[in-house]
Structure formats: C-alpha cells, structure tokens
Design a protein that fits this description.
Keywords: Membrane, Transmembrane, Transmembrane helix
Structural class: mainly alpha
Order of helices and strands: HEHHHHEH
Shape: globular
Protein name: Phage holin family protein
Low-confidence stretches: none
Transmembrane segments: 33-54, 66-88, 100-122
Helix content: over 70%
Organism: Rhodococcus spongiicola
Number of domains: 1
Largest sheet: 2 strands, antiparallel
Pfam families: Phage_holin_4_2
Strand content: under 5%
Length: 126
C-alpha cells in the first residue's frame, strides 16, 4: 500500500512540475485523459524505481560532496535522477522530456517540495 501511495504522490509531483516548469514536458497520448493519467503513472513508476535503486548508490559515492556542501548537493542528485528518468522514459512512446540541467533542478525542487508536503499529510504505519 505504501508503494501505491508513493507512486501516486510522485505522479502528482511530476505532473505539477511539468505544469509549472516550461522545459519539462510529458508526452500526451491523444486518446483522452485516462490514457494521459496512465502515462504519468508510468513515468512515476520509473521515477520511483530510479529513486529506490539508483539514488542510494549515487548518494553513497557522493557522500564527501554531501558533507562538504551540508546536503545541498542533494539538489544536484535529485536533478540527475529526474534527468535519468527522462532518458529512460524517452526510450518508449510515453515519456518525460527535460530540456536541460537547470530545468531539471527546478523540477526536482518542485517534486521534492510536493513529496514533503503530501508525505506529511499521509498517515504513517507506525
């Protein structure tokens, strides 16, 4: 259940970032709103998998930079995870496109803020 909630939160955050940042685009299917929601959920699934498997390894290798910058390098890592999600999803017909690194930074900031706010509203198991 937690994975489904995390997936929906990520999907909403990615959709919101695509609405607010001009360089982030989500591919539209042209088949209606239901198909577009499935596309956003598919992108969120890729984003969630990247954050679950790749991000911890990148954080481990960049630990000296994280310590040196007092955690601000996390913004760069989040932007790189968004760019990686864009690259993986662009290999299919449905996809996320991010114009550049600074666009990814702004998108990552929005996604992080939305995740923090919505995760605080969702009750925890404990």
């Amino acid at each position: 259940m937690t994975l489904v909630i995390r997936l929906v939160i990520n999907a909403f955050a990615i959709w919101l970032a695509a609405q607010w940042v001009s360089g982030i685009e989500i591919a539209r299917s042209g088949e209606g709103t239901g198909a577009d929601v499935l596309i956003v959920l598919g992108i969120a699934l890729v984003f969630t998998a990247v954050n679950a498997f790749v991000k911890p390894i990148v954080k481990l290798f960049s630990l000296p930079l994280l310590i040196l910058t007092l955690g601000l390098f996390t913004l760069v890592i989040n932007a790189l995870m968004l760019l990686l999600t864009s690259w993986i999803s662009s290999q299919t017909d449905w996809g996320l496109s991010v114009d550049g690194f600074w666009t990814a930074v702004w998108g990552a900031i929005i996604i992080s803020l939305v995740n923090v706010v919505l995760s605080a509203l969702v009750p925890d198991k404990r």
